[in-house]
């Protein structure tokens, strides 16, 4: 046997973790499990109570029996279905506008030649992010009232988009900081214009950040309650506002059924988005 090789009996014994270290590991694992249960318990409760029979068409704290009737009832509820449709339309428009404006802003935060302009844009981005949603909602409501602009889906989209723009800009900025400028210089040396370099070099590298920004924009808009409360009308109402209003008179189990169905669709969409991001990250 050569000197550089060790037999099984001569292997260095594995170092055991000290008892104090194992105690910390067990404690942190237990704390993590408690946090996960605390976060997921309300979702699981809503899922279970979507099958509750209830009493007189209202949800009850005590589980009174199993039924699947609330799912077709939720689907046949015109006001509930209209609020879901409105939330989906608003969320899609906010995501598109947020990606276009926020993506451009995120690139400008990194690639604008003037440092003064970059600092100014960075300040505006953080201001949009830290302003409370209540202030945004009240300010926009007063603005629309003073300018006699009627509330509609367009005004609701305009109210939710500024915050989304700042979120998307920061996500795109973090990804753009990691881009190798040598790739863009090589593209220019090969005769590509700025637009071709943007489309075939920069955007493919930003694809995971763009997907993450779209997902965040959609999620923020779909479950936004504060701004939507100020800007919705009887004709244009979102699902969060509908659910919040239903709490005043006792929610029906049909509401739980609708939220459960939306949660399942959202989880499936999130899984598909993560899969696309993972595939895109491997190709880049």
TrEMBL record:
Location(s), subcellular: Cell membrane
GO biological process terms held by the UniProt record: transmembrane transport
Residues that span the membrane, as ranges: 21-49, 90-111, 123-145, 151-172, 198-220, 254-277
UniProtKB keywords: Cell membrane, Membrane, Transmembrane, Transmembrane helix, Transport
Domain ABC transmembrane type-1: 84-277
Primary location recorded for the protein, binned into one broad class: membrane
Family annotation (InterPro entries): Bact_Polyamine_Transport (IPR051789), MetI-like (IPR000515), MetI-like_sf (IPR035906)
UniProt topology in membrane: Multi-pass membrane protein
Presence of the UniProt keyword Transport in the record: yes
Gene3D superfamilies, A to Z: MetI-like
Name the UniProt record assigns to this protein: ABC-type spermidine/putrescine transport system permease subunit II
Source organism (scientific name): Spelaeicoccus albus
